[in-house]
Design a protein that fits this description.
The complex is a heterodimer of chains A (275) and B (798).
Chain A lengths: L6 E4 L3 H10 L3 E4 L5 H6 L7 E4 L9 E3 L3 E5 L4 H5 L10 H7 L4 H6 L2 H7 L5 H9 L2 E6 L2 E6 H4 E3 L2 E2 L6 E8 L6 E7 L9 E8 L4 E7 L6 E2 L1 H10 L1 H15 L5 H16 L6
Parallel strand pairs in A: 1-3, 2-3
Antiparallel strand pairs in A: 4-5, 5-10, 6-7, 6-10, 8-9, 11-12, 12-13, 13-14
Chain B lengths: L1 E3 L24 H5 L15 E7 L5 E7 L8 E2 L10 E2 L11 E2 L6 E2 L5 E7 L2 H8 L3 E6 L6 H5 L14 E8 L2 H7 L2 E9 L11 E7 L4 E6 L4 H12 L6 E3 L16 H13 L3 E4 L2 H8 L5 E9 L5 E13 L10 H9 L8 E10 L13 H19 L3 H8 L8 E2 L5 E2 L4 H12 L1 H6 L9 E13 L3 H6 L9 E7 L5 E5 L8 H13 L6 E5 L16 H28 L7 E3 L2 E4 L2 E3 L1 H9 L15 E6 L7 E13 L6 E11 L6 H21 L30 E7 L14 H4 L1 H13 L8 E2 L3 H10 L12
Parallel strand pairs in B: 1-31, 2-15, 11-32, 13-14, 17-18, 23-24, 30-31
Antiparallel strand pairs in B: 2-8, 3-7, 3-9, 4-8, 5-6, 10-18, 11-16, 12-13, 12-15, 16-17, 19-20, 21-29, 22-23, 22-28, 25-26, 26-27, 29-30
Helix pairs in contact in B: 8-9, 9-10, 9-19, 10-11, 14-15, 15-16, 17-19
The chains are: A alpha+beta (275), B alpha+beta (798).
Chain lengths: 275, 798
């Protein structure tokens, strides 16, 4: 399959991209192109115009304060994997990036592209949800912030308005005593996950989150497991996930629940590790 | 490595250490490693038009209307626009076999999603796809038949109404199972199935056809394993003489059976080039390939096996059903898979009573194509599952029951219950070797679970593989094309190099190297000075082509014979130049010797071509070139064989399987190039791991394919490959030149069985058994759940 005809334009900035999106409803943003490229070739996506963000100024910024690091949406998975982007999550981002698809994909695919595409199995979608990160988006009306939990609305659906561009992700800086775990089930290396378990415990920051990803829709928080993690530790949280998973993934079959529960237990077990 | 027995061939010369048996580097690798191969998609030609197809979006429908915009009248063609084209019909002499008419473009009906309905042309593929979007077809949908059971059910919708049912072929054989059934002390029953797969050559199908005004020929560059057959097929279904068709395949990037059949797309492109006298090209993309092209492997079995209390097989009662798809491919018929399945189920085992009922069912899916191993990966999975089930029933290890049932070396040659003639080999020894390699005894003495709590198991699969089977065998399968003698042309050039031409084609098997090694052994010419040209019907002698693991046996044999004749003529001229008798002449170190004297091959060449005054009286007027034909003394097939042993870990929480170790003990007779044997075996085993764990092309209830990209259709990658360990034994075939047997398919046959047996060994503490491939996490979890779940397992120390 070959892509249908489209126009191509390079945006000089996120604001310029937002202006093009506002003026042309057939326009679509191009990040690293690792998902959009095949979708174009399969003619599943047929934008009239591609707006390439590759050279847009400001999308590879790094800014922040004691509490957060704002990572520009244009950074590639490889830059995060390699530590070119400093890791506010004490190694979690680098570890997750290392497991995304294949290096060739990581070389081009971007943090913002992945989050805006919102493939339910994408690693960043689950990771940013678990870290309680905040999305920074720019549109005609200016810049606003959206919590990860409200950003991913479902499979391939986000809170981005038609004219909005994801410009950065504010990731909380985990404290020295923080622990995290991340486990995913893939049929083979580099495939999209069938189940993701993510756990973050940072008492100093008030973070205790146990999250199931690759659910077919948005990631889901396991409230009981998260509370158990906060109050009793990871073993207690792990003991409860099999019982809780059905209530947060009511439409999944027994095998999928078992797989999700296994990934959650394995993610939680990693909280024992000193990283 | 062990070696036994002598083969049948003319005099072998020591050669320069590059001949038969040498680990010579492949001649074809330099161009491929430098990216300078030339495949069909690489060819540039002025004025070429690219092709895309409008394909059926529905599985089963009557076509009510088709329309195209007037402006695109010449760019879009339907069936009735292809004047004179004939449907692809594959005749068979098997009694009761039903013919399908497979049109180049759909006529009154479509019978699978992806069936070509219109051919669309434009200067680029992207524009051709734009054109295809302008096609409009009205379908009246019919109930789709998406499984064998649905196709066999009374009142099922009929794919081919004139048949009265959905059976391409049904065969029954029985040599006395009832007597065994009445008295056998042990009976096991199994229902097994293997998923539909699509085989994956790295290069998809491809064809470029144009009219050569000077030659007055339709020239076809295509990705094919069988160029001379394609010439015959294209001529037959275009209704034109073969003399005006030339098939000249460029580099071909893998085939595995998918490129030994003529498909409607190729016929339609050939029609365009023939009628418009202009170049047209179609490159199948991976989506077309997945959805509407390659389909294979889908079998269902119901087996009842009878044994004595030690596990000695007494009889096998089998029902085999093949989900054959909508049409027969040409020329291998829709009956080949069924015939092979029924004929090969007994495998390497000594079996006396066998009843088999085989059905090839037409379904609304793309046609079933032969794939590396043809039926045998399925039957190997089936019979090896039976052996392990019998072993459990009698309380013995699977390998013990295998060892006592295998045909022994002393029984060779052995004719089995289905009439297959096993020429040579020591099957129990291959099992024994594999058992030692995988460390079975140590494993059994060790823990059943690893530190991560995964369940551990070892599985074995012993197989024998009929290779290079010839005339009688193909005739017995009722095929319209039956191989006989293969020819090769061998010529010494004026400057002392050797040219080999053969009508077989190489799609990665290394024939440019191995055929040269055979000629090197027979003539003493250095490997670097031997050049192999394959496939072009304009300048190679006829061959039915590369399939059935036959190339190195058949064409290797022909090259050997032709080289032997040329060698004798070289000796006669060299003897005259050195003034000795021909018997005194030997080949050594790339030169021709007689005592202390020696001449070069170039001097002999010059004498014949340009200095005939130096020739002896009575020189053979055939010169230094000859075409010779060959087939083995007994051409019912040479049986390569081996045992695969897999050690796996099964994660009972996720259903995931990891291969921890994989050992192969194999014997393909004389190895022309052990490195190529290993490449063939490892590559085949890699595909077998796909069959075992990953590859699956499911269809929904409407006949829609659910795996239409490589996101959904999982192929094993480098990280899924174990580090194969291999042991070679060389039992020379008594029937072939140099004792060679075929080796192309064997690697792909056993992995599904070995890995499934290993999984079942691992899951034994849970009481779970897996009876379907691939062993996806879902199937493994389902098997565990059916047995009561992992939690129900007795506590086992990690």
């Amino acid at each position: 399959m070959k892509a249908a005809v489209f126009d191509y334009v390079r945006a000089g900035s996120a604001a310029e991209a937002a202006a093009i999106l506002a003026a042309d409803e057939g326009a679509k943003l191009l990040g690293g192109g690792q998902s959009l490229g095949p979708t174009l070739n399969l003619r599943l996506a047929r934008p009239g115009r591609l707006v390439d963000l590759k050279r847009a100024e400001g999308l590879r910024s790094l800014a922040g304060d004691d509490a957060h690091l704002a990572i520009g949406a244009g950074w590639t998975h490889a830059a995060i994997e390699d530590g070119v982007v400093p890791d506010p999550a004490r190694g979690m981002l680098a570890q997750v990036a290392h497991g995304i698809a294949y290096r060739a994909v990581r070389n081009r695919g971007t943090l913002g592209g992945s989050l805006a595409h919102a493939d339910p199995s994408a690693d960043w979608v689950a990771t940013m949800f678990a870290l309680n990160a905040t999305m920074v988006v720019t549109g005609r009306a200016g810049t606003r912030r959206v919590a990860a939990e409200g950003f991913t609305l479902g499979a391939f659906a986000t809170a981005l308005a038609e004219d909005e561009v994801l410009v950065a992700v504010e990731v909380p800086r985990l404290s020295a005593g923080a622990r995290w775990g991340y486990a995913k089930l893939c049929r083979k290396t580099g495939e999209f996950a069938k189940a993701i378990g993510a756990a973050v415990l940072d008492p100093a920051r008030g973070l205790a989150r146990v999250v199931a990803g690759a659910t077919g829709g948005a990631p889901v928080l396991l409230p009981a497991a998260s509370a158990a993690l906060r109050e009793q530790g990871w073993q207690a949280a792990a003991a409860g996930v099999a019982g809780e998973i059905g209530s947060v993934l009511p439409n999944s079959d027994a095998a999928a629940r078992a797989q999700h529960a296994a990934m959650l237990r394995r993610a939680l077990a990693q909280l024992d590790l000193t990283r | 490595m062990d070696a036994t027995q002598e083969g049948q061939a003319g005099q072998e010369h020591a050669g320069p250490g590059e001949g038969i048996g040498a680990r010579a580097r492949r001649k074809e690798d330099a161009r491929h490693l430098h990216g300078r191969g030339c495949f069909t998609a690489d060819i540039r030609m002025p004025g070429i038009q690219e092709v895309a197809f409008f394909r059926s979006p529905v599985a089963h429908a009557r076509i009510r209307a088709r329309e195209k915009p007037a402006a695109l009248a010449d760019s879009i063609l339907f069936h009735d626009d292809l004047a004179g084209i004939l449907p692809i019909v594959t005749r068979s002499t098997l009694p009761g076999y039903k013919l399908s008419e497979y049109p180049a473009l759909a006529r009154e009906k479509v019978r699978y999603v992806g069936e070509p309905v219109a051919i669309c042309v434009a200067p680029t593929r992207a524009e051709a796809e734009d054109v295809a979007e302008q096609v409009s077809v009205e379908f009246e949908e019919l109930p789709p038949v998406v499984s064998c059971a649905a196709g066999l059910a009374p009142g099922a919708a009929l794919l081919h109404e004139q048949w009265g049912d959905n059976l391409f072929l049904e065969t029954r054989s029985d040599n006395g199972i009832e007597a065994v059934a009445a008295t056998a002390p042990v009976t096991v029953e199994l229902a097994l199935e293997t998923a539909r797969q699509t085989m994956h050559p790295m290069e998809s199908r491809a064809i470029l056809a144009f009219w050569d005004h000077r030659a007055g020929q339709l020239v076809v560059h295509m990705a094919t394993q069988v160029p001379h057959l394609m010439r015959a097929g294209i001529a037959e279904f275009l209704g034109i003489p073969q003399a005006i068709v030339r098939v000249a395949p460029p580099d071909v990037g893998g085939g595995f059976g998918y490129k030994c059949v003529l498909m409607p797309e190729e016929l339609a492109v050939a029609w365009l080039a023939w009628h418009r006298k202009a170049p047209f090209r179609w490159i199948e993309d991976r989506r077309e390939h997945l959805v509407s092209g390659a389909n294979t492997r889908q079998h269902e079995y119901r087996i009842r096996a009878y044994a004595d209390r030690r596990g000695r097989l007494l009889g096998l009662d089998a029902e085999v059903t093949i989900d054959t798809g909508a049409y027969s491919v040409w020329p291998f018929t829709a009956g080949l898979e069924a015939a092979q399945a029924g004929g090969n189920l007994p495998g390497p085992y000594d079996l006396k009573a066998y009843r088999c009922h085989v059905r090839a069912v037409a379904t609304n899916k793309p046609p079933f194509c032969p794939y590396r191993g043809v039926a045998r990966p399925g039957v190997c999975f089936a019979i090896e599952s039976v052996i392990d089930a019998v072993a459990r029933a009698v309380g013995r290890e699977g390998w013990e029951v295998r060892a006592e049932n295998l045909v022994t070396a002393a029984a060779m040659p052995y004719t089995n219950v289905t009439g297959k003639h096993y020429d040579s080999g020591d099957y129990p020894a291959s099992l024994d070797t594999a058992r030692g390699m995988i460390g079975f005894e140590e494993f059994r003495a060790g823990p059943r679970r690893d530190a991560r709590g995964r369940y551990l198991g070892i599985g074995f699969a012993t197989y024998c593989e009929q290779t290079a089977h010839g005339t009688k065998v193909f005739a017995s399968w009722g095929l319209p094309v039956v191989p006989g003698y293969d020819q090769a042309h061998v010529k010494l050039t004026p400057d002392g190099a050797l040219e080999i031409k053969a009508g077989i084609h190489s799609f990665g098997q290394g024939l440019e190297t191995t055929l040269a090694q055979v000629a090197c052994t027979m003539t003493g010419v250095r490997l670097d000075d031997i050049r192999v040209t394959l496939g072009d019907t304009a300048n190679t002698p006829f061959s039915t082509g590369a399939y059935a693991s036959r190339g190195i046996v058949m064409v290797g044999g022909a090259v050997s014979r032709a080289s032997e004749v040329v060698a004798a003529r070289i000796k006669a001229i060299a003897a005259h130049l050195m003034q000795v008798r021909p018997e005194a002449v030997t080949f050594r170190d790339g030169r021709i010797h007689a005592g202390a004297a020696s001449v070069s091959y170039a001097e002999v060449g010059h004498a014949w071509y340009t200095r005939p005054d130096q020739l002896p009286d009575g020189v053979d007027t055939g010169g230094l070139e000859v075409t010779e034909g060959y087939r083995p003394q007994v051409d019912t097939g040479l049986f390569s064989y081996g045992t695969h042993a897999a050690r796996v870990a099964v994660d009972a929480e996720t259903g995931q399987v990891e291969i921890l170790d994989y050992c192969i003990s194999e014997d393909c007779g004389r190895m022309v190039n052990p490195m190529i044997v290993e490449g063939q075996t490892f590559g085949g085993a890699g595909q077998g791991i796909g069959t075992a764990l990953f590859e699956e092309s499911p269809y929904d209830a409407n006949g829609q394919p659910l795996a239409s990209t490589l996101i959904d259709y999982l192929l094993p990658g480098p990280t899924e490959m174990p580090r194969f360990r291999i042991h070679h034994t060389e039992t020379l075939s008594p029937y072939t030149a140099h004792g060679i047997k075929g080796v192309g398919e064997g690697g792909a046959i056993a992995p599904g069985a070995a890995i499934a047996c290993a999984i079942n060994d691992a899951l034994a503490p849970l009481g779970a058994v897996l009876r379907a491939l691939p062993a996806s996490p879902e199937r493994v979890l389902a098997a565990i759940a059916e047995a009561g779940g992992a939690d129900a397992a007795p506590a086992v120390a990690a």
